[in-house]
Amino acid sequence: MMDINQVEKSDHTLPNSLIKDKTPLFEVNHLSLTFRQYKKGLRESSTQVIRDFSLKIHQGEIVAVVGASGSGKSLLADAILGILPENADVKGDLKFAGEELTMEKQMLLRGKDISLIPQSTNALDPLMKAGKQVQSVIKRKNKKSIQERIFHKVGLSKKAGEMYPFELSGGMARRVLVSTAMVSEAKLVIADEPTPGLDEHARNETIHYIKQLADGGKSIMFITHDITAALEVADKVAVFYAGETVEIANIDDFTGKGENLRHPYTRALWNALPQNDFIPLKGSQPLPGETINGCAFESRCPIAVEYCAQKPPQNKSVSGGIVRCFHA
Amino acid sequence: MRFKRISLYVVKKIVKLVSLLLTICILSFLLVSYSPIDPVQTYVGADMMRVSPEQQENIATYWGLDESRTEQFLSWGKAVLEGNLGTSLIYRDSVADVIAERFLASLVLMGFAWVLSGIFGFLLGIVAGMREGTIVDRIIKGYCFLLASTPAFWLGLLLLMLFSVSLGWFPVGLASPAGILAEDVTFIERVRHLFLPALTLSIVGVANVALHTRQKLIEVLQSEFARFAKAKGENGFSLLWRHGLRNISLPAISLHFASFGELFGGAVLAEQVFSYPGLGQAVVQAGLGGDVPLLLGIVLFSTLFVFAGNLLADLLYKLIDPRMRKGEVQ
C-alpha cells in the first residue's frame, strides 16, 4: 500500500550512540499512580490504580501492553504524557532517550516527540475542521500541504481536510487520528486501544498503519485488551494485571499451550482465546484501591501456594523475558 | 435544494409566530374580558356620577359590550389586523405611539444590561471553569447562586439606598432630571439616570450565563478531545482559545438570546423601582389603571420581542455551529 518511509525516515533517526549501546528509547521503572480524593470533609483517601509498572521500548519496536478493561491502561498513557488530573500522584522513573522524563520535559515533548493515537473518534474537536486538527502538531512550514500529503497516504481526500468531524465516517475519523501521529515528528507513539469496536476491515487497516509507523522508525506502545491484535503487530507483549506488569514476553513465546509463557495469567489469557482451548479464567481482577499484600494474581491463580498471598513477587528475568511470579 | 430548505424554514417559523400570536390574543382577551374592570367606568372615571345610566348604556352599546365575546374578539382582532391597536386610556394617545416611545427607553436600558451581563457572565464562567474546584471558582459560584436567588426589585432598592440616598452619586429615579425640557437634557445626565437600573438588570442577568458557561467549559475540558489536544501539546490558554471558546460560546449565545423574556420581566421590576419611564413601567400602569388597549398592545408587542430573541438564538446557532449549518444544507 502506501509507503511512509521515504519522507518520514530522515526525521526519526536517533543519535548513533543511542542505537549502538541499545539504550531504550523509552523506559519505565516501577511506575505507580495514585489518586487522592477527599471523602467526607477533609479526610483524604487515596486509590492506587497502577501499582508497579515497568517497560522498555527500543527504537522502531512495537510493544503491546495487554490488560483487561479497568486495569488502568488508559491512565498509563496519560501518565506518560503527563496529562493526568491534578489529584494524581505519579511515582517511579520515566526515561526518554536516556534522559529523565520530568513534568517539564513531558510538557515539552508531548505532541512533539511523544504522540497519542486515542481510542475514540470523540477525540476530534467537533467544531474544528479535520485538517486543522492535524495541522496543529506540525511545527514546520507548509502545514497545509504536509497535512494533505499525509491525508493522501491514508486514503483521505483533500476535501476531507475541510470537513468537520461529524461529516466524516467512523473510518475516516480514525484515519485522521492516525495521521496526527504520522505527521508529528514523534519518536514514541502511544496507541490507546485503537482497535476495539472496529469491523474486520477497519481493524486490519488500523493495524497496518501502526506497523507503518514502526517501519518509519517510530517506537510504538500499543495499549489494548485484544491479545490477538497485539500478537499480530507487536515485537513484545507486556501483560498488565491489576496495575502491575506481570510478564513481558516475546512474541514467539505465544505458541502451543503456552508452555513458553512465564506467568500463569498470560498462559490463562492465551488459552482463553477461541482459536486455542477457549478456557475462560474464573473470577475478576482486584479493584483499584483494594489492598493486596502478596501477588496480585494469587486469588485466581491455579498454582498459588500459601506464601503467594503474603509477600509480593519481584520482577525477574527468565529466558529472555521478565516475569513477576515465584514459580517461574 | 438549499433555497427550498430555507423557504421551508421561514414558512415554519411564520406559522409558529402566527399561531403563537393568535393564542396570546385569545388568552389575554379572555382574561381581560373576565377581569372585574368595567370598561365604561374606567373610561368615564371620576365623572361616573354625572353620567346617567342611559348614557352608560349607550356607551356600552357603542363599544359593542352587549355583543357576545366571540363577536367582540372578532371585531377587536379585525382592528388589530388593520394596524389599529386602539387608544390608550391613561396616555390619551394611540397605543402604537406609546409603545414605540416607551420601548425606545426600555431598549436602551435592556440593551445595555443585556450586553454587560453577557460579557461579564461569560468571562466569569470561563474563569470559574478554568479554575474548577479552587477558591476562585467557589467564590464565583457562590456569587452566582446568591444572584440567582436575588429578586431584581430588591437589588434595585439596595443599590438605590446605597448609591442614590446615602452616597448621592446617582439620581433616585426617572430617565432625565425633572423640570428640564427634553431637548436640553445632556447625554451625561441620561447616562447617570440609566446607570442604576441597567446595573440592577445586568447584575441579575449574570448568574445564568456564568453558571452555564462554567458547566460547559468543565465538560469541554474533561472531554476526549480536550485530552487529545493536551496530548498534542496544547494547554492552558491555547487549549481554551483553540478548543474551548467555540464550544462554550454556543450554549452561552443561545441562552442569552433566549433570555429576552426574563430580561423583559426584569425590566418591568427595575423600571418600577427606579420610576424609569419604559415599557415595563407602562405595563404596570396599564394593568393597575385598567387601560385595556395599552395592556393588550404591550402583551402582543412583548410576545413579538421574546419571539425575536428566540429566533435570533436559533439563527445564530445555525450560523456558528457547522453541525447545524451543514446539516441544514445537506
UniProtKB/TrEMBL annotation, chain B:
Enumerate the Gene3D superfamilies for this protein: MetI-like
Give its localization.
Cell membrane
A GO cellular-component term linked to this record: plasma membrane
Topological relation to the membrane, as annotated: Multi-pass membrane protein
Q: Which InterPro entries match?
A: BPD_transp_1_N, MetI-like, MetI-like_sf
Coarse class of the protein's main subcellular location: membrane
Span-the-membrane segments of this chain are: 14-34, 103-130, 142-170, 190-211, 252-274, 294-317
Q: Pfam families annotated for this entry?
A: BPD_transp_1 (PF00528), BPD_transp_1_N (PF19300)
Native species of this protein? Virgibacillus profundi
Q: What is this protein called?
A: ABC transporter permease
Name the Gene Ontology biological process terms. Answer: transmembrane transport
Q: Which family does it belong to?
A: Belongs to the binding-protein-dependent transport system permease family.
* UniProt keywords, alphabetically: Cell membrane, Membrane, Transmembrane, Transmembrane helix, Transport
Q: Which PROSITE patterns match?
A: ABC_TM1
